[in-house]
Amino acid sequence: MYKNYWKPAIILALCTMLLACSRQDAQAEKHLDNPLSVHLAGKLTLTGSSTMAPLMQAIGERFRALHPNVQIRVLTGGSSRGINDARAGKADIGMASQALTDRESDLDGFLMARDGVGIIVNKDNPLTTLTDRQVADIFTGRIGNWKALSGRDAPIVVINRERGHSEVELFTRYFKFAYGDIRAAITIGDNQPTIDAVAGNPDAITFVSLGEAERMSQTGMNIKLLALNGVAASSKTVRNGNYPLSRPLSLVTKDLPKGLARAFIAFSLSPQVTDLIEENNFVPYED
Known about the structure:
eleven-stranded mixed beta sheet, 287 residues, alpha/beta, two-stranded parallel sheet, D-Maltodextrin-Binding Protein, domain 2, 2 domains
């Protein structure tokens, strides 16, 4: 079991443990109760989870409003990219929308929020809920027509996700089949184009970030989240623990962060961004 997680409640304690090996770090040590009082400058690169990218861009903009001399670049590519880039030093901070495991024991993870993996269909689809067995049968090709689920007589268009995206690992593990077992008409990478594809196809089905799908649905996107075993897919059911397909959203670093990276992570775990987390339909980790 992965043990190198740092929770928001102990981030200030973390700060006291970090070595101050630069003037900037030494100054930061004097302001642990208010890390934003430190003058900061420099560049940060974050890579990884497409689920987390819009949130981290918003947090980055708020951070830069306080520190105009800081530049923050956020790139997607999936949680695997974030983990690998952090490990290789290609990114200052990786974004991982999955539970870290012993395979990442050489890295440090900072828990900031919770999300779910939601199953979505086009809004015109009359279906409202699926069982675990029905989901597995759809994605492995044993059910190929919506008529078998009391829908219209039309082939089911399964949209798969590219490897490296954390939704894939949680989805296949929960429903107990291998990635290679999925029978898909098309495979797409990031959440947004996947959601767009379902919105434009009345017979499509896929799995994406629950928070992003919920947010897009609320803005009028032509999609809907399906309940799973009768449990609604929503940030509310992720919050209360009833929805089974939930996962942590984490920031990942190669070593305990210092200087600018440390200040940005502390800010990202602070109450000053709780509203941004909730606006993205995620659940603050300590909530």
